[in-house]
Every structure is written in structure tokens, then in C-alpha cells.
Structures
1.
Amino acid sequence: QVQLVESGGGLVQAGGSLRLSCAASGRAFSTYPMAWFRQAPGKEREFVAVISWNGGTTYYADSVKGRFTISRDNAKKSVYLQMNSLKPEDTANYYCAADSRSSVVRGTKVGDYNYWGQGTQVTVSS
């Protein structure tokens, strides 16, 4: 079992920054990839970023590339999402996800991840 708890969301003006954190507990955090997804009201949950077990590989959605950075600290069992140059369209509930079934990044779909946190709300005002 893996438990994930996100934090760091809030209200920020356009152009501002936020850093999201996801704390994990449970089995073998350092052995599987971690990702961030987001879901805006009335929209489907969408991929934001993923990082491999050792941090050596990262992928980003085109909409956040160059503005967001995913990182992880396996000693602290945590993954982070640094969000810069935020836009109103970044407003969403942000979810941390784990794919404990694989040691490599398998994909960017919701179904590729088997553990999820409860989410943290990010609101960007114009």
C-alpha cells in the first residue's frame, strides 16, 4: 500500500509561483515513478509531469513545459512540483500519483498509475 498526501496549493496571481509537495508512505518509494496530474472543474484529469524512480528521466505536458519542474527526494519520500509563471488556465486541483507496478515510466494516462492522493487546489487569478 502507498499513501500520498499533497500540500502547497493556494491562491496566487498570474505570473507568480507555487511549490507543491507530495509526501509518500508505504512500500519502496524509491523504486517507482511518480507523477502529477491536474483536474479543472468540468474537465477530465490531465497529465502534468512524471519523474522516474531515480529522477533521471522527466516528461512534461506541452502546456507546462519550461514553466514547471518536477523533482523528488527519495530519502524524504517526497516528490515536488515547482510551478513558475503561473497562468489562470493552470487553475485546477493537482494530484500526486504513483505507479508502484513498474520501475520505469510507462505512460502519462490516468490508468497508468495505481495510487493517488486527495489533491491540493491551485487557483491563479488574472
Note: The chain has a mean pLDDT of 96.
2.
Amino acid sequence: QVQLVESGGGLVQAGGSLRLSCAASGRAFSSCSMGWFRQAPGKEREFVAAISWRYGSTYYADSVKGRFTISRDNAKSTVYLQMNSLKPEDTAVYYCAAVLGVAGTRLTNHFEYATWGQGTQVTVSS
């Protein structure tokens, strides 16, 4: 069983950058694919980015391609989301999620994930 704790959220001006971290506890991290999702007030949770456990393949929502980068450090059991050129519409609570052994485009679907962090707020001012 993996437990997740996000950090790195905050308030930033449009055009700025933030790096979110998600630290995992438990032994299974290297076998887990990891995803980032976000939820803005009054909106449904939406996919942001994911990274596969097996080959490190990455997937991005169209809205963040070219601006966000997901990466993982298995030695530190941590996944990162580097967010550049932030826009006010990126404002949301960002959640880290983990799923054991799943790969491919299934990782864009939040139903696939078994474990979620508590979320971290990202606010982008205009």
C-alpha cells in the first residue's frame, strides 16, 4: 500500500513557475504509475499528467503540454510536476495519485487510480 503526500503549492503570478512534489511511502513505488490531477471550484477533477512505472512514458493534457513536465525519482519515491508559464486557469487543487502496474493511456482516467494524496492548492493570479 502506497501513501502519498503532496507539497509545493502556493500563490504565483501568471507566467511564473511552481514545482509540485508527491512523496510516497511504502515499497511499491517503483511499480506504480503516477498521475497528477486537478480540480477547480465547481468543476470536475481533470487529468493533468502521468508517468508510467515501466518505461517512464509520459502523458499530458493538451492544456498543459509544453508548459508542465512530470518526472519521477524512484530512489526518493517521489514524483514531480514542474509547472511553467502558469496561467490563471491553472488555479486548482492538485492531487497526486498512484496505481500499481497500469500503463498506457488508461493513466489519463482518474478511475484507474487506487491511491490519492490530500491535494495542494495552486493559485495563479493575473
Note: The first strand starts at residue 3 and ends at 7.
